[in-house]
Amino acid sequence: xxxxxxxxxxxxxxxxxxxxxxxxxxxxxxxxxxxxxxxxxxxxxxxxxxxxxxxxxxxxxxxxxxxxxxxxxxxxxxxxxxxxxxxxxxxxxxxxxxxxxxxxxxxxxxxxxxxxxxxxxxxxxxxxxxxxxxxxxxxxxxx
Length: 143
Description:
By secondary structure, the protein is of the alpha+beta class. Helix content is 35%, strand content 22%. The protein is built from 5 helices and 8 strands; from the N terminus they run βαβββαββαββαα. Strands 1-5-3-4 form a 4-stranded mixed beta sheet, with helices on one face. It has a two-stranded antiparallel ribbon with strand order 2-8. A hairpin with a 5-residue loop joins strand 3 and strand 4 (48-50). The chain starts with a strand and ends with a helix. Mean pLDDT is 88; it is low at 132-143.
């Protein structure tokens, strides 16, 4: 499982965020001076599985790239945090295509394998550009 670097603008959020949590997370990332947890996204649609708050922080910090792990829904279980609500990969992909978002903390993604952390200084994320391969991959996925 590899961490790749993608532009946050390539990623499609499917859930709203809690502004207080975004502010708290942004302060934490700025204090640490590094990005330690990659965002997870579906490998073809590039919709965010886990990391909506981190994605919002990346936009606020105007980072040109963020660490992302691209996964397939075949290797991820999906549940709802909300009692009585059924969430499926198909629902999430349809939400991504619609441009709408679920309320905050609706979808829960459970990863069969442990996900790798990273330790990328913010300065390196501010000054690197996505690789040509990553950009081509993102453009192909969006079309």
